[in-house]
Design brief:
By secondary structure, this protein is mainly alpha-helical. Helix content is about 70%, strand content about 5%. The chain is elongated. The chain starts with 12 loop residues before the first strand and ends in an 8-residue tail after the last helix.
C-alpha cells in the first residue's frame, strides 16, 4: 500500500508523520495510542513504516475531541471507542448477513460495552456534581463571612 491520491485527489493512506501533522500531534503520541489500542495502522510497508487510512485520521480527531471537549482520560476514551467499535461490529454483521446467533453474540458484547460506558459516565458525573457542590458551599461560606465582616464594620445606627 502506498501513499497516493484517490480519484477525488484525497490521500488514501498517510504515513505516521503525515497523520501526526494533520492531527496536530507528535508521532510519539500516535505510537503510544497504538500501544494502548486506541488507533491501529491500516497497513505497514516492508520497512515497517505505519500507514493510516482516512478512517484512522477521523478516529484520531474523535479521540482529540473526547480529550479536549469532554476532558476524558485515555482509559475513558478506550471505553468509549470499545463501545462504538462493538456497535459497528453489530452493524457490519447485519449488513454482511451474519447468522442470528452471531449477531446476538455481537449485540450482547455491544450492550456490555455500552453499560460499562454509561456506568463510567455516571461515576464521572457524580464526581463532577460533588466537586461543584463543594465549590458552591465554599462560595456560600465566603458570602456569609463577607456579610459578617461588613456588618461588624458598620457604625451602630441610632434608633432614637
Amino acid at each position: 500500500m502506498s501513499v497516493s491520491p484517490d480519484l477525488s485527489g484525497e490521500v488514501t493512506c498517510l504515513r505516521i508523520g503525515e497523520l501526526a501533522k494533520r492531527a496536530g500531534l507528535t508521532t510519539r503520541t500516535l505510537r503510544y495510542w497504538e500501544e494502548l489500542g486506541l488507533v491501529t495502522p491500516t497497513d505497514h510497508r516492508y520497512s515497517g513504516e505505519r500507514l493510516y487510512s482516512k478512517v484512522e485520521l477521523e478516529r484520531v480527531g474523535h479521540i482529540r475531541e473526547l480529550q479536549d471537549l469532554l476532558g476524558l482520560t485515555l482509559a475513558e476514551i478506550r471505553i468509549v471507542l470499545e463501545s462504538e467499535d462493538a456497535v459497528e461490529r453489530v452493524r457490519s454483521a447485519r449488513i454482511a448477513g451474519a447468522s442470528t446467533p452471531r449477531r446476538l453474540a455481537l449485540l450482547d458484547q455491544a450492550l456490555e460495552a455500552h453499560s460499562l460506558l454509561v456506568e463510567r459516565m455516571d461515576d464521572r458525573l457524580a464526581r463532577i456534581s460533588a466537586f461543584r457542590d463543594e465549590w458552591v458551599a465554599r462560595g456560600q461560606r465566603m458570602r456569609d463571612r463577607s456579610e459578617e465582616l461588613r456588618s461588624e464594620g458598620q457604625p451602630a445606627t441610632d434608633t432614637s
